[in-house]
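A note from the maintainers: we've had questions about how concatenated examples are separated. There is no special marker in the raw files; a new sequence line simply starts the next protein. For clarity in this README we add a label.
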Amino acid sequence: MAYYQGQLRELCTRYGKIAGFLFDGYWPRQTFTGDEITYLAQRGPWDLAGSYDLIHSLQPDAVITNNTHILPLRGEDYQVWELDLPGENKAGFNCLEVGDKPTACWWNINAGWSYQPWNHAPKRAEDLFETYRAVRARRAVFMLNVGPRRFGDIHPEEQQILRTIGRMIRQYKL
């Protein structure tokens, strides 16, 4: 805990103004075994509340979220659904409860969350646009993940999908 909070302190004090922190990997509803059991305790060795307090004390304007699949914890600024709409759990791991924080939906353009050349199967722009519209209809933010390839660029097919979605959004003024 001291190590990672030291890393947070360094990020908050040595790199200027930070807009936000996004944590991913603390899933209290996930079944763990062995040494992974420490993930289950809300304040366990991660001390999320203490970490959030540290961030907010050093970067008061930073927005904090954690992809926990539960209602936001103290210090978190918005609630996330991964591959689902707010209040839905079609993916099988999201929270059905909608809290009092702003909401966001995280989606990925490809089959996985990162670029995997052996698993390149991007979703259709039309389908992603319909998801975008459904998310916005629930007054949530739509966050679309695009994983860069090993040289840091975005796959040309995914670039085209993003451009198409952008045109559709501008055309419908959404």
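[label: protein 2]
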Amino acid sequence: MSSNLGMNTVKQHLPKDWLCELRILHRLGIQTCNDIKRTGWVNIVIITTMAAILTIFGACFRTALSISSFSKELGSALEISVYLKNYANAKEIKNEISKYEHVEKITIIPKQESWSKLKAEMSLPNIDNPLPDTLHVKVDDPENLQTVFANIKKIQSVEDISYAKDLAVKMEVVNHVVKTITLVIVLIMGLLTVTIINNTIQLVIQARKDEIEIMRLMGVSNWYIRFPFIMQGAFYGFMGSLVALIPLDYIQTGLTNVHKFFMIPTPPYALNYVVVIMFTMSILFGAVGSFWCIKKHLQV
């Protein structure tokens, strides 16, 4: 009993053979490079095709961010105009509305100020001021305009309320369409990437069929067999994204000029965000396509 405990204690203190593990990784890395070389000129076709798909994705995604920025900027200019009854106290109504969710800013426009501006612009008879006190309510997001509008409408001291509903609805529709198109493009990109990688890895597997069968008969781990193929798929995704950066830079410059022309700020870190997403998705889809392909082969 004591001898077994002693052996377990010794085993726990034995250092791991990190050198052996590094040799295995080195061997897998060499195998991955050999598989890529074996594919030959087809690598150029695959990377070029991947780059074209990723360029379309990057362009659409980056454009979608700009469209959302334009929509949000226009939406921030939309305000709900609240017209109060004669007996209403504007400051009290302002305090009440400010408690509502999504309300960002409230400006009181006294009826005397409105009447003075109107008289300065138009020739009016000398009559009593018929205008009410007005509140201009700014909402944090155009999508929340209708919610805030419905809440304010319930206040009894409010005579009337209005906002550019048609414009708000159109901007909301544009946002939803842009998001839907972006999602569809992501799905299409994923499907095309997985299909291309799957077919490519299938060719490599056929070329190494006998070698893989021998390794399986020798009891080699499936992960040892899979790893070079998964890395090859990830390599194609990475290289495709790298090439796609060239046209994406021109697209970024064009969109920046459009923002400057309309004097609307460019979304912060938009290009960085697109690049990170593009590289992550391409590498992931490339690795997944390879994994599925070799998994089907190993199950035969």
